[in-house]
TrEMBL record:
It comes from Bradyrhizobium diazoefficiens SEMIA 5080. One of its GO terms (cellular component) is cytosol. SUPFAM superfamilies: PHP domain-like. This is Putative DNA polymerase beta family protein. Residues 1-24 are annotated as: Disordered. Residues 12-24 have a biased composition (Polar residues). GO terms for biological process: bacterial-type flagellum-dependent swarming motility. Residues 1-10 have a biased composition (Basic residues). One of its GO terms (molecular function) is phosphoric ester hydrolase activity. PANTHER family: PHOSPHATASE YCDX-RELATED. InterPro entries: PHP_phosphatase, Pol/histidinol_Pase-like.
Length: 111
């Protein structure tokens, strides 16, 4: 049995966690681009954005040819209305560095 097909989807309850407030903690969610998974479901993308999540697209590759699954994740992000500036691995290195520095500073202030 192929474990990727047998593994259950990730279950989260965004409605009980979001009540319209952004988190003070830096949250990152992954869009799994493997065609058998494709979670975080595109219908939850807006809730993740409202909650302040930064997303990344993950091919869930277990072999080099499976890296080609990335396009499925990009399509799901587009379908869910995720702008490129909220996708960590769509940023340039200077943008990622700036984002992480800002998050580190905001955590230090909150501590």
């Amino acid at each position: 049995m192929d474990i990727k097909k047998a593994r259950p989807r990730t279950r989260i309850n965004l409605t009980s966690n979001t009540d319209g407030r952004q988190s003070s903690r830096p949250l990152r969610c992954s869009i799994n681009a493997h065609p058998w998974r494709l979670d975080l479901d595109w219908r939850w993308h807006q809730a993740a954005l409202d909650f302040g999540c930064m997303l990344s697209i993950n091919p869930d590759a277990h072999s080099i040819p499976e890296l080609d699954h990335m396009h499925w994740g990009v399509e799901m992000a587009r379908k869910g209305g995720i702008p490129a500036d909220r996708v960590l691995n769509a940023m340039t290195l200077p943008e990622i560095t700036r984002y992480l520095r800002q998050k580190r500073r905001s955590l230090a202030r909150a501590a």
